[in-house]
Amino acid sequence: MGLKVTQKVVPTGPWFDAMRNGDFDVVVEAPGWGIVNPPLDVQKVLPASVSAENYGHYEDPAEVALYDKMLREADPARQRELMHQLEKYVLDEQAHEIWALWWHRIVPYRSYLKGFKIAPTHFINQDLARLWLDK
User: Fold this and answer.
1) What residue ranges do the domains of the chain occupy?
2) How far apart are CA 51 and CA 41, in angstroms?
3) Residue ranges, the chain, pLDDT below 70
4) I need a labelling partner for 75 at 20 to 30 A (CA). Which of 8, 10, 21, 44 fits?
């Protein structure tokens, strides 16, 4: 592709400072919600005037209008249709940001590891104190 990439790994504080100040070309970052809620999940990709967590630092009134329309729709089927329109606009037509709304969590571990309970998100149930080895 002709890209010459340098990955810069920094501690959390400087990493967030760089994102908040726009001091990056590309950044990998994830939301920290514990439930799946599409209207909340897409807030990170809304323009900076709407979402403080938008690190792309762009404005897009058409995107905000689509989001507001979807957010205020009372009919679940119509809201779902509007959500798909928003996804198409953000990911296909504009591509300000790219994100994965959901992913499947696969945690391989040995059969003798006991006490592990998989959570719906990797942000919760990380207490390793309840794990034990049956060996």
Assistant:
1) 12-94
2) 12
3) 30-35, 99-104, 120-123, 125
4) 44
Q: Compute φ and ψ for 133, nearest 5 degrees.
A: -105, 125
Cα dist from 29 to 46, 78, 79, 130, whole Å: 15, 30, 27, 29
User: What is d(CA 123, CA 33) in angstroms, rounded to the nearest whole number?
Assistant: 8
Answer yes or no: CATH 3.10.450.350 is held by domain 12-94. Answer: no
d(CA 63, CA 43): 11
At residue 114, the 3 state secondary structure works out as strand
Across-strand partners of 113?
A: 133
Q: Where are the alpha helices (DSSP H) in the chain?
A: 12-21, 38-41, 61-71, 76-88
pLDDT tens for residues 80-114?
999 999 989 988 898 877 766 556 677 788 999 99
Distance separating alpha carbons of residues 100 and 109, to the nearest angstrom: 25
DSSP 52: T
